[in-house]
Structure formats: C-alpha cells, structure tokens
Amino acid sequence: MSPELIPGAAAPSPSELLKLSFDGPVAHLRLNRPAKRNALNDPLVAAIHTAFINLPAEVRVVVISGEGEHFCAGLDLSELSERSVAEGIAHSRSWHAAFDALQFGRVPVIAVLHGAVVGGGLELASAAHIRVAEASTFYGLPEGQRGLFVGGGGSARVPRLIGASRMTDMMLTGRVFDAEEGQQIGLSHYRVADGAGLDKAMELARKVAANAPLSNFAVMQALPRIAEMPQSQGLFVESLMAAIAQGDEAAKDRMRAFLEGRAGKVAKG
Question: pTM for this one?
Fold first, then answer.
C-alpha cells in the first residue's frame, strides 16, 4: 500500500510528486507517481500550479514528462470522493487554475507523451504549446463510461485540437487513438520512436529558448486569443502585438543580425 493510502501516514511532499531539474534556460518537470501511472490527485495538481507560478526568472522553456511507463492516466479515481455541487465546481476550478498557469504562463511548454495520455492526462497535455508523442502513446477520454464529465479544461482545449465531434466520439464510445492516429488528427506535433521523446523535446526547447522572450510570449498569449476574435478585432490586436514585439530590443538585435548576414535563413528541417 502506498503511503498516501495508509491511514495516518504523512502525505507525499510536492517535491516527491513532481520532480524539477534545470538544463540552462530549460526547466524539466516530471510527474512522479509511476506506480499510479502518474494519475493526478489534488496534491499533484497543486504542485504543478505552484511550479509554474514560481518558475525562476532564468527559465525560458519548460519540458513536462512522466516518470515510468505512462505520461498520465488521468484523475486518480481511488481518491475521488463524493462532493456537493459547490465542492465539485471548486475542485474543477483548481485544475483550471493549474493548467491555465501552464498554457498562459510566462514561458512555452513542451510535453513529452508516452503510454497513457488519458482523461485528465489529455487535459494536461492539451494545455502544452507543443506535444511530442512516442510510439507507445495512446489517447482516451473514458469519462463517459464512468459517469463523469471532463473537469480539467478538456472541453475548452481538446476540441480546439481535434474538433468537438471527434471529442464527442471519444467520450461517448470510449474510442482510443494510438500515437499515429493522434498525430494525424492533431493531438501531437511530433511523433518519435519510444525513448526518443525527451531528446526531441529538449532539442525543440533549446530552439525556442533562443527566441526573443517577448516574441515567445506574444505567440503564447496573443495567438490563441486572436484566433477566437472576429477577424477585424483580431487584425487590430495583431497590429498592436506586432508593434510591441518589433519594438523590443532583443527583436531589434535579431533583425540586425539577419540583415547583416549573421543569422541563418529559413531552411527545411
């Protein structure tokens, strides 16, 4: 029996549930409940929230992955308790706050997916900006078979990746997509061999970290909001964001480097 299930035992500390390490400007967050397939309980969700709102200033990109054989198998049903409607709303909103801190935080986030990316695990992955899926990855939303509804932001995020109709199918029928199918429908951006996900994510993270921070911030914050606006409003916000980004000194340095032939040109691969 794990310590968190023993009556009177001390609960795991946040540092035991979520491992944090650094490689220059890249922070690596690892879900650390492998015996539970990294299922999300309240302390782990709180640890994710805390980590993202307290990132060191020097961090420019976050890579998030899962220890063991799975990224995240969703909500830890063994810790699901009966709640009133008000308590259920508060619980869902705590997940929203944590995943909003990931999606709309200070830096881009790259998720490394393998094994189960199910239920709340898919909700967590969908909040990341880039997703790298290993061959073992499979996706599911089994809430419909369990008398539940997504509560971690899935209804707002997943349809933006694959469409409401496809998400409806997953929830009503329990349909599961494998890594290749997930790549085809838009659940991942990159599909790699088993064991290659972290290396690919770190390669991408170093590229992203080399961008001007304000440019990264604009892509993360402005782009999804513009996509939801009427076109005329979106174009106006685009003009404002473009002017702000171009006025940043780091952007000016990069433009001068390009014009002076000191920066690489766009190339395939």
Answer: 0.88
